[in-house]
Amino acid sequence: DIQMTQSPSSLSASIGDRVTITCRASQSINGYLNWFQHKPGKAPKLLIYAASSLQSGVPSRFSGSGSGTEFTLTISSLQPEDFANYYCQQSNSALGLTFGGGTKVEIK
Amino acid sequence: QVQLQESGPGLVRPSETLSLTCSVSGAPISSNFWSWIRQPPGEKLEWIGYARHNGNTNYNLSLKSRVTISTDTSKNQFSLKLNSVTAADTAVYYCARMVATIGLIFDYWGQGILVTVSP
Q: How many CB atoms lie within 10 A of CB B117?
């Protein structure tokens, strides 16, 4: 399986801050990288697919970039509703879809 | 608006079979892929497998010997069966729709159901 490593595992930030989360793959995943937001007790929400494509309805303050093995999710100006857990997921191999360990974004 | 809702027992005895159903509204089961994902307490999300309406399936190799995912187009539902469960199968189980556009994308999820394996 392709291993996905997310960093940091948690961060504290203030409203309006720029936040960046990194996801590294154990091998090249050809840009097949998705990002999700998850709030406790709610359904996870797709934010970004194929590394940099914004899912319909997702605010433009969310953006994704990267290629090869290193990818980032950026929130340009953190809003109150953005405090949540964030996960990356690779789909380069249909035989083994894997997720990162998650990043918890908390209020400073 | 596509919505998914998991249902099933919240407690399963060791060595028995875990059975969950996902009810789908807003999209036909006859299209796309239908998947199960789980998250044990304090651990990563783990993809379990997916099925299509035509019977095609694909499972995580680590669970393949114990898993069956199937669809029911008449009820617009799909289901998960995991046999011979142990405490390690205690997790929140999510169902999700998966589309194959640029890679495989879980675009809609259920809110999850906690299943505890305990005597």
A: 19
Q: Which residues of chain B have a CB within 8 Å of the CB of A33?
A: 103
Distance in angstroms (rounded) separating the CA atoms of residues B24 and B105 = 17
The shortest CB-CB distance from B58 to any of A36, A94, A102 is to A94
CA distance A69 to A52: 14
Min Cα distance B110 → chain A (Å) is: 5
Q: Would you call B104 an interface residue with chain A, using a CB distance cutoff of 8 Å? A: yes
Report the largest interatomic distance among the alpha carbons of chain A, rounded to a whole angstrom: 40
**Could you tell me the mean pLDDT of each successive run of 10 residues in chain A, 108 residues long?**
95 97 95 95 95 97 97 97 96 85 94
pLDDT in tens, B12-47: 999 999 999 999 999 999 999 999 999 999 999 999
Rounded-to-10 torsion of CA B47, A50, A54, A64: 100
Q: Is B1 on the interface with A (CB under 8 A)?
A: no
Strands (E), B1-66: 3-7, 11-12, 18-25, 33-39, 46-51, 57-59
